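ok so for the tutorial part 2 we go from a plain amino acid sequence to predicted structure tokens. step 1 is just haveing the sequence, like this:
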Amino acid sequence: EDEDYNLEPIEYSGTVKDIDVADIVASMGDSPIVKEGSGEFITMTVSLASKPTKDVSVAVSVTDESELKINKKTLTFKPDYWDMGQDILINSVDDEIVDGNVKSKVVMKMTSGDANFNNKSKEIEFTPVDDDEAGFVITSNAATFPETSGSTTSMSVALKSQPTSDVTVAV
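step 2 — the prediction. this is what the tokens look like for a chain of 171 residues:
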């Protein structure tokens, strides 16, 4: 035994501060930018920041359903599985309208018998990148147009995207 280490016990008093937070943790490997019409999804993994005493239900919605889609509307976390991530797939709606890059949010609202988690929410903003463009396409079944008097040919005019108001094409 080393006599240098035969010390008298020292008593300390202090306060333990609980730093656990009743919150939603959302993580993504990708940036919150999704290209319209690409068919690509962003995976957002959701869990809780701390252990609840009761089940926590998370209602999931989007602020603009004409821009974003989600594959789940509800997530449930049990006290024993509060930190097990649950995935939500998010993609853009291909709306065929030239409306620019309209931002939309995924909103997650908690309800629980645990008052620390009840009525808390988190919002994550996404930017769907618009792939639509204004314009029109002219098609014809004739390779050339006759210049002779009385000759006719037919053409078809179609818009490249859905307009937000009436469109007139002068011929």
